[in-house]
Amino acid sequence: MIDPIAIAIGPLKIHWYGIIMGLAFFLGTYLARYNSKRSGIDPDHVLNMVVLIIPAAIVCARLYYVTFEWEQYKDNPLDIFAVWQGGLAIHGGLIGGVLAGSWYIRKHNLPFLRLADIFMPSVILGQAIGRWGNFINQEAHGGPVSAEFMEKFPAFIREQMFIGGQYYHPTFLYESIWNLFVFAVLMFMLYRFKKFDGQVLFSYMILYSLGRFYIEGMRTDSLLIADTLRVAQLVSLCLIAAGVILMLVFARKNRQTGHSQNSIE
Description:
Oligomer: single chain
Distance between the termini: 46 Å
Strand order of the largest sheet: 3-5-4
Shape: globular
Order of helices and strands: EEHHHHHEHHEEHHEEH
Structural class: mainly alpha
Helix content: 55-70%
Radius of gyration: 19 Å
Number of strands: 7
Largest sheet: 3 strands, antiparallel
Number of helices: 10
Strand content: 5-15%
């Protein structure tokens, strides 16, 4: 088992979860700045937005999780602040990021959809990296599996997924791999196949949510409504529907106007 604490200096403890999330934010920011330069957006705007988006995303991701797991925290409210233990809901983080980013975009009169297209590859890359924080904390895994099933995975994954004398589906790995696939698709679209602003954003909504819906059904720690309905699956269905509708509407509008938003060159 991997120790969740990477560095301990006296009372100071640095957790792997925090290191991994920090890496995700750093690489995501670097990529968004790089993409913005090639799309005609001042990269300083990206950096200014990230300063707002990251804390807003973390706070909302935590509040979202705590809201659906209130029974776990109501008697120990200080545990709400222990984010290094995990418990950051991606959909909550997306809400916080969108709210903070929208405020900045509106204040500076920037093109929302174009900036969203620039940010979405960074978001999905960060999600792919962030899932390894779940791996370290032995969370976001699926149901029990046999030792024979786990033989197809590297030893370090098998060992970390052996919890309480039982192997579990490494669903964190499934989602990380799916997210990397979506990342590749979004980058290709941004650079070679973008026809209109919003195309990358809508593709993210559809593709990420397809994978999340399927993988969420395998997990044992899903946030629930009425003890039966998986919140992430419901949100994923809504995002897929919205993404498909918006994609069709904007694609039709693009054809009618005869205007093509060139891919980044």
